Amino acid sequence: DMREEAVERLRGVVRDSVGKHLYTSAIFLADKVAAATGDPADVYMLAQALFLGRHFRRALHVLNNSRLLRDLRFRFLAAKCLEELKEWHQCLMMLGDAKVDEHGNVLDQDDGSDIYFDKDAEDHEINIKSAICFLRGKAYEALDNRDLARQWYKAAVKVDPLCYEALECLVDNYMLTCEEESELLASLKFGKEDGWLSAFYSCLIRKHEKEYVVEAKFKDLERESCSISPSSGQMMKNNIDVLACKAEYYHQSGEYQKCFELTSVLLERDPFHLKCTLVHLAAAMELGHSNDLYLLSCNLVKDYPQKAISWFAVGCYYYCIKKYDQARRYFGKATGLDGTFPPAWFGTGIAYAAQEEGDQAMAAFRTAARLFPGCHLPTLYMGMQYVRMHNFKLAEQFFMQAKSICPSDPLIYNELGVVAYNMKEYQNAVQWFELTLTHTSSSPNEMWEPTMVNLGHTLRKLK
Predict the structure, then answer these.
(1) Other CB atoms within 10 Å distance of the CB of residue 28
(2) Which residues form the TPR repeats (predicted)?
C-alpha cells in the first residue's frame, strides 16, 4: 500500500504534468495512484488526463468501468469523450433525459448525485449543470436540430451567466431575434460582483441603436468594472473584446472608415483575435481595400487552414476585385468547412447577385434565413432581389419580415421607401424615408446620401 503522503505527492505531480502538458507522464502516474487508492477523485483525475491526451475511447472505458456515472462530473466527462468521437446520440444519452422550454428553463433534469467533489469550490466554478446544458446544445446543433440547440444554449446561460460560450453561440450564429436577445439578457441572474458581465453582455448583443445609447452602455461597462479592481475601468475601456464590440457597432452604423481604423489598431495588438479579424474583413470589403484583404487572407490561410474565416477572407479578396466566380468558390469552401458560418452564406448570395444569377442568389439567402433565424439580412437581401425583378408586392413582404426580426436597422426602412415609391405610394414613401433618417445611429454619413436623394425625389412627386 502506498503511504498517504507518497500518494499526495504523486497527485501533485499529476496535476503539474497536466499543467505542463506532459499528458503521457500524467496518465502513467495517475493510473498508479488510481490503482493504489480506488478513490473516485483519483479515477476522475486519470480519466481527465486520458481525455487531455486525446485517448477518448480509453477515458470513456475508465469512466464506464468506474460505476460512478451517477455523478454529474463523471457523466459530463464521458459525454465530452463522446463529443470528441462525434457520437452525438450516445453523448445525449450519457447526459440523461431532461426537457427544456422555449425560454431556456430546464424542466425535470435528471441530476444524478454529486458524490464527493469539493463543495467549497462552487462559487468560483462554472456550474456543472450549465456545462451540461451547453453540451446538449452542441449535440443538437451537430444533429441539425437548431431549435433544441437554441433552447439548451439559452438554458446554459440562464443556469450560469458566466458560461460565455453559450451566449456567444446564440449571438454569433444569429439564433435569436433582437427582441429575444434583450428578453434573455433581462432574465439572467448575475452575482453581485458580476455587474461588469451584465454590462458587457448588453454591449455584445446590441445591434442597431442610437449612438448615445451605445456610448452609455460602454460607459456603464467601465463604471461596473471598477468592482473587479480600482484600475479595471480603464483596463476594460481598452480591452480588445470590448473594442471589437465597438468596431462591430461602427460597421453596423455604416462608419466603415472609423471601423477599419479601430480594427487595424486592434489587430496590431492581437493579430490572432478572430472576432476582430472578421469585422476588419467586412470593413475592408466595404472600403474596397483589396491589398489589405490580400495580405490578411494569405496570413489566415497559412495560420488557420481549417477555419472557415480563412477561406471567407480569400473570397472577400476576389469579390473586392470583382472576380465573382472565384469569390463564390472560396465562400463555398468556407461553408463546406463550417456550415454554420453566417458571413460565407451571405457572401455566396451576394456574389451570385453580382453576376445577375438571381435563382442561385435566392437559394443561398433562403439557406441563410433558415440557418440564422435571428438575422434579418437574408430576408432583406431576398427583398432586394425581388425589387430587381420589379416584384414590389413580394419585396414588401420580405422587408416587413426583416423589420420584425430587427426593427432598428435603417436600411430596411430605406428599402420599404423604394418599394412604396415604385408603387407610386408617395405619401408612404416619404414616411419610410423619414423613418430611415430617424433610425440612423449618428450624424448622417455618406451611407445615407441615397436616402436623402430618394426623399427629395419623392417630395418633388408630391408637389
Answers:
(1) 13
(2) 308-341, 342-375
Mean pLDDT of 319-333: 97
Nearest to 325 by CA among 314, 341, 336: 314
- Could you give the CA distance from residue 447 to residue 429 in angstroms, rounded to a whole number? 19
**Domain boundaries of the chain, sorted by first residue:** 373-463
Exposure string for 361-372, b = 16+ CB within 10 A, e = fewer: bbebbebbbebb
Q: Is the pTM of this model over 0.85?
A: yes
* DSSP for 203-216, written as a single string: HHH--S--HHHHHH
- pLDDT-derived band at 320 (thresholds 50, 70, 90) equals very high
What one-character DSSP code corresponds to residue 442?
S
Q: For 351-380, what is the mean pLDDT?
A: 95
Residue 144 grid coordinates = 441539425
Residue 123 carries which DSSP code?
G
* C-alpha–C-alpha distance, residues 328 and 308, integer Å: 14
Residue 100 has phi, psi (to 5 degrees) of -135, 145
- pLDDT at residue number 227: 76
Percent of the chain as helix, strand, coil, to the nearest 5: 75, 0, 25
- Grid coordinates belonging to 182: 434583450
Residue with cell 458581465: 197
Diameter of the chain by CA atoms?
Answer: 99
Which stretches within 68-194 are classed as H helix?
72-84, 88-95, 128-142, 146-159, 164-172, 178-187
**238 three-class SS:** coil
Cβ–Cβ < 8 Å for 262, 277: no
Which CATH class, in words, describes the domain spanning 373-463?
Answer: mainly alpha
Measure the CA–CA gap between 113 and 124, rounded to whole angstroms.
Answer: 20
Closest CA to 398 of 423, 372, 377: 377
**pLDDT of the residue at 115:** 46
CA atoms within 13 A on the CB side of 122: 11
- State the number of CA atoms in the 13 A half-sphere of 329 facing the CB: 5
Contact 354, 324 (CB under 8 A): yes
Do 297 and 313 meet the contact criterion of CB atoms below 8 Å apart? yes
CA dist 433 and 451 (Å) reads 6
